[in-house]
Structures are given as C-alpha cells and as structure tokens.
Design goal:
By secondary structure, this protein is mainly beta. The protein has two helices and ten strands. The chain has a single domain, classed as Metal Binding Protein, Guanine Nucleotide Exchange Factor, Chain A (Beta Complex), CATH 2.170.150.70.
Length: 155
Amino acid sequence: MADGAKGADEAVSFTGGCQCGAVRYRINANRLTVYACHCRECQKQAASAFGLSVPVFLTGLEVEGETASWRRPTDSGSHTNCHFCKTCGSRLFHAGENRPGLVTIKGGSLDNAVELDPVAHIWIRSKQSWVVLPEGVPQWETQPQTQSEWMELLS
C-alpha cells in the first residue's frame, strides 16, 4: 500500500482522496492499522454494513484541497468532527473530540484500500446479522473503553 519501500522503522507515505479528486491527502506513518466499526452512524456514513477506520496522528496527515466539516454526537457520548470534500461530499476523515491529535481516515478513501485488513471489529452489537466476523480477530460489543485499550488495538 505504501508509495515507497523503506525500513520497518522508517515512515512511508500512503495516499488517498475524495471521489472527484478535489481533495488529496498523504499520510506519513510507519504502517497503517484499520478496524471495522459496525455502529449505526458508520453504517449510515458508509451506506454499507460497516465503516473502515484508519487511525493516524494528525501530525502525519497532509491535506490538499478544501474540506468542510460538521460535528455530531457519537455512541460513546463524545462528539466527532466529520471532514468531507466540499465539492463531491466524500467523507475523508473524522476527528474525535475524546482523542485529540488523532484522526480516523475513512478506509475506502485510500488509493489502495483493497489491501486493508481489519485488526478488530467494534460496535458489533449493531452489526448486520448477515455479516460474519473472522475467528480470532478481537471484537467489542461497543468499543475499547480506555486509552490503553485503544493503544493496544492500534499497536
């Protein structure tokens, strides 16, 4: 998925953008981690059975083009700011108020999204009945409750 090959500890670039091409982004990170969220909000946003979220540090994200955002409550009781392309409306990333400095890229907006493989499934109490989760992949009825649980999920 990376644009260039580097050593395991060196940052590489991952790219993505909106459907119309007005917004492009680059993520500078060692690797990407993805989880599948089955909450009703992610189902609505993705117009699908679940959403794919790729957490990255805001300091490693470069965005070119104009985005807009709107703020909505989350099932966890916090709020998130949803950023999208002002031209085509493609959702690109979320910035949760309960995790400053971290954003979640919408997995389908990555150029090579086909390579994403979720390390966990969250909010499975809302998952569609026909979705079969793989054995051995961690799952939460809601979501990790502590910062250390989130960091374990993302490591």
